[in-house]
Structure formats: structure tokens, C-alpha cells
Amino acid sequence: MWAGEVKCLALGRGKRHHTAMQPLMLHVACDLGPIRAVTAQIRATESGCEAEFRLDGRVDRIVVPEAAPPLRTDNLWQTTCFEIFWQPLGGTYYREFNLSSSARWAAYDFDAFREGMRDAPVERVDITCVPDADGLVLKAQIAAELPAPAQVALNAIVDHGDGTLQFWALAFPPGKPEFHSEACRQWIVER
């Protein structure tokens, strides 16, 4: 571990044609704020996936959850966190992962759009979070059954600390930020 790293639990999965970090877009309804860019990548592994997220900007001016025991925890999306949505191609079922810099994580299965929510089975989630002068990098290794090929969404929520949140994604559907929408799942992952 590097100096300043926080060990946590998390998820990540592979991507198909991309090998470099991909830019996430800020939702049109959000102000830019202290974070100027967010990038992410994901790849499938034998046991699940690995993901990496990078916030570029003034991390000292946003809420970054402090290190905590790496436990499954609900409502992580209410402050700065990172998300992965994993949906096997051709199906309506999908899995959501929420990853926090605190080492806390959550995983949920859904039968269809916001229907049938339940805790998802996960063997292990490991998160490493490293802040620096230019931003923050969160890396996650997730051991869980993740069928492929799949369409995947990579998202970030940034808490400004004044009650406002930024929403970042590969893509958004029209209207309000809705990470559960299939329109956000723009990354195709194969094994």
C-alpha cells in the first residue's frame, strides 16, 4: 500500500474494447464545482471484476467519507461514492455496486428497472482509495458472479458538502439523473 491509502471493500468488472480510462459526463443539471473531471475503467477478471475511478480537481473542497470498517452499508449514494451497474446482455436483471472511499460498499440485485431489489451475493470487495493534490483515485476488486457479456454503467456522485450533489456517468437518459436507466450502461464487457 502507498502512503495515504485506505483499504476498503468494493467491486469492479471488465470492459470490452476500452483499455484506458474513459471520461464520465457531468449531468446537465449539475454545476461544475471543485471536481473538473471524472474518469473510470473496468475489466472482467476470473473472479468478478476490477474497476478504477479518478476524480480530478479540488478534493479538499468536497465530502470524502473517512476510513471505516469495510462493511456492507446502505445509502452510500447520499454522499460521494462510485457505482457500477452490471446487466447481462439480453436480460432485464442487473446488479448495482456502491463503493465508498470509506471502505464501505453495497451490492443489490434487481429483476428489472428498480424492481425486486435485494442484497446481492458477493464473495469479497476490496477498495483502495488514494487522495492526492490533483484528485482522488479509487480502485476496487470485486469477487462475485458477474455474467458476461454484459452492458455496464460507471457512475460517480460527488457531494459538495452544502447539500448539492454532482452526478457523473458514461451517459444519461433525458431528464433527471437516473443511474438505474439502461441508457447509462454504455460499456460492453466480455470475458
Give structural notes.
The chain has 191 residues and is mainly beta. Helices cover 0% and strands 46% of the residues. The chain has strands at 6-8, 22-26, 35-45, 48-57, 81-88, 94-99, 105-110, 118-119, 124-132, 135-143, 150-159, 165-169, 187-189. Strands 1, 2, 3, 4, 5, 6, 7, 8, 9, 10, 11, 12 and 13 form a 13-stranded antiparallel β-sheet that branches. It is globular and about 40 Å long. The protein starts with 5 loop residues before the first strand and ends with a strand.
Give a summary of the structure in a few sentences:
The chain has 191 residues and is an all-beta fold. The chain has no helices and 13 strands.
Characteristic terms for this protein:
191 residues, mainly beta, 13-stranded antiparallel beta sheet, 13 strands, globular, disordered N terminus
The biggest sheet, with number of strands, parallel, antiparallel or mixed sense and barrel status, is: 13 strands, antiparallel
What gyration radius follows from the Cα positions, in whole Å?
15 Å
Q: Taking all residues together, what is the mean pLDDT?
A: 89
| Helix content range | under 10%
In sequence order, what are the helices and strands, one letter per element?
EEEEEEEEEEEEE
Shape: globular
Distance between the termini: 28 Å
Which regions have little confidence, pLDDT < 50, spanning 5+ residues? 1-17
Number of helices: 0
Annotation, overall tally of beta strands: 13
The proportion of residues in beta strands is over 45%
> Pairing-aware structural class of the strands and helices?
mainly beta
